Amino acid sequence: MPQGIISAAAYVPYWRLDRGQISETFGLGGGRGQRAVASYDEDTTTMGVEAGRLALKSAGDVDVRALTLSTADPAYLDKTNATAIHAALRLDSSALAFDANGSVRSGVGALLAGLTQSGPALVISSDLRDGMPTSADESLGGDGAAALLVGSDAAGPLIAELIGVGTATEEFIDRWRLPGWQRSKTWEERFGETKYLPLGDQAFNAALKQAELSAGDVDHLIVTGPHARSVKAIRGRLGVDKEKLVDDLANEVGWTGTAHPAMLLTSVLESAEPGKVIAVLSLADGADCLIFRTTDAITSFTPARTIAAQIASSGPVTYGKFLAWKKWVEVEGPRRPEPSRISAAAAGRRTDWKYAFIGSKDAEGHVHAPPNPNDTDVAPMADVEGTIATFTIDRIAFSPSPPITYAVVDMDNGSRSALELCDLDASQIKMGDRVEPTFRKLGTGDGIHNYFWKARPLRGG
C-alpha cells in the first residue's frame, strides 16, 4: 500500500534578528540577512503545537493514531513532551504520543518511522538553535518547527508518495553538546567533510536505485545538515542541475536544526505541481535520503499558512533582547516574586481548557470560557478569532520580558476571554484590533512549565 504525506505545515516564529546587529555590537560575527527567533514564551513544545495545528487544518478529517516530537532541545527531560502537544491538539487518548529527542538526526528518523505506521502519524520536529555570541551557530541558526501528517492512501489522499529511501551511518565526532550545555561544540570542518561526502553519496544513490530513477529525474533537491561546508560541497556533485536546488531559507529563517528537513520539504509542497520528484538529503551523524513524488492530490492541497506568508509577517527584535531571551545575559526585571509552580492536580482536572482551549456551551447556545461545569456541550476556542475590547499594559507584574499586555477579547463565537497578548509592540496595540489564539508558556516555576493560550495580532497569511 502506498505510503507518503497527507499534509504538511511549518511554523516560523514572528520575531527576526538582523544579523548585522551582531557585528555592530561586537565588531565581529553576524552576516547578512535575518534569523527567526522564538519569543521568550516559546519553546520546542509550543512551536510544535503551532506546526501541528496548521498541518491538521489542511488535512481535513483524519484520525491521527500516533504523534511524535523530535527536537535537540526538549522542554523537559524524563517527562514526555509530546503529551502536551497531544493534549493541545485534542487527539484521542488511544493515539500514541512519544518523543524522539536529543539529536538533529532524530527528525528524519521519526519521519521514517512514521512512514511505516499502520495508521496516520503526525510527525513533528521542532528546534531552538543557539550559539555563543558572535559564533556561526548564533547567526546561521534559526528557530522553528514543522509537521508532516503521514500514512497510507487509505487514511487520506497522499499529496506526495514515498518512492525511495537510502541511509548511511558511521560513528564519528563532528558536533556534540552535553546535557546542560547551552552551546554546541564542533570538530575541525575538513574532517567532517571527509566523512559526510561519501555518506551522502551512498544514501542519495541508494534512494535513487530504490526509486528506479537517475539524478536527472529529480525536480527539487533539498540538502541540509549541521555541517555547512559538507552541505555546500555535496550539492554540486550529485548530478542534479543547479536550478533544481531548493532555497535553504538561510537569509530569512536560518538553519532550524531537527526541523529543517521537514521545513524545506514543506516549502516545496506548498507550491509543487503533480508528478514532481522531490529528494531530501539530510547530513547529520550519517546521511539519510528520502525521495517523494507529488500526486494529483497536490492540486487540492491548501496550506493553512504558508512559510512565505509567515516570513512576510514578521517583526524585528533587538540583539540585546535576543541575548536576554536566549539567556546569554540576565537583565533586571520587575522587583516582584517569580511565579510559583502550578498545581498538577488542578491542571489535570482542566486539561481540555488548559491545553486545548475548550470552553463550554449551554442549552441556549451561549459559550462560556472558562467552561461552565453545568454546560453539556463543548466549545473549541483555539481556532476562534476575536477583537480586543479593552487592554492594559502592566509594567509591574513579573515577566522575563516586560511589560505584559493583557486584553479582554470578544471572541467571534460570542464569548469573552481575558488573554495575555504576545508577538507585538505594546505601544502599537489599540482597541478593535483583531487577534487569534496561540499556544504559549505563561511561565516556569520549580521546573514546571505553565502552558496556556495567549492571543497574537491577526496578520496576513
Shape: globular
Low-confidence stretches: none
What would CATH call the architecture of the largest domain? Answer: 3-Layer(aba) Sandwich
Number of domains: 2
**Rg result:** 22 Å
CATH superfamily of the largest domain: Thiolase/Chalcone synthase
Query: Briefly, what CATH class of the largest domain?
Result: Alpha Beta
Number of helices: 12
Name the average pLDDT. 95
Beta content comes to 25-35%
Molecular structure report:
The chain has helices spanning 20-26, 44-59, 82-88, 106-114, 136-140, 189-211, 228-235, 260-269, 307-312, 319-325, 344-349, 351-356; strands at residues 3-11, 15-18, 34-37, 66-70, 96-99, 121-127, 144-152, 160-168, 175-176, 185-186, 220-224, 277-283, 287-294, 315-316, 358-361, 367-368, 377-380, 386-394, 404-411, 416-420, 434-445, 448-457. By secondary structure, the chain is of the alpha+beta class. It folds into two domains: 3-325, 3-Layer(aba) Sandwich (Peroxisomal Thiolase, Chain A, domain 1); 344-457, OB fold (Dihydrolipoamide Acetyltransferase, E2P). Strands 5-4-6-7-1-8-13-12-11 form a nine-stranded mixed beta sheet, sandwiched between helices. A five-stranded antiparallel beta sheet has the order 20-19-18-21-22. It has a three-stranded mixed beta sheet with strand order 3-2-14.
What is the topological layout?
Blueprint: E1 3-11, E2 15-18, H1 20-26, E3 34-37, H2 44-59, E4 66-70, H3 82-88, E5 96-99, H4 106-114, E6 121-127, H5 136-140, E7 144-152, E8 160-168, E9 175-176, E10 185-186, H6 189-211, E11 220-224, H7 228-235, H8 260-269, E12 277-283, E13 287-294, H9 307-312, E14 315-316, H10 319-325, H11 344-349, H12 351-356, E15 358-361, E16 367-368, E17 377-380, E18 386-394, E19 404-411, E20 416-420, E21 434-445, E22 448-457
Parallel strand pairs: 2-14, 4-5, 4-6, 11-12
Antiparallel strand pairs: 1-7, 1-8, 2-3, 6-7, 8-13, 9-10, 12-13, 15-16, 15-17, 18-19, 18-21, 19-20, 21-22
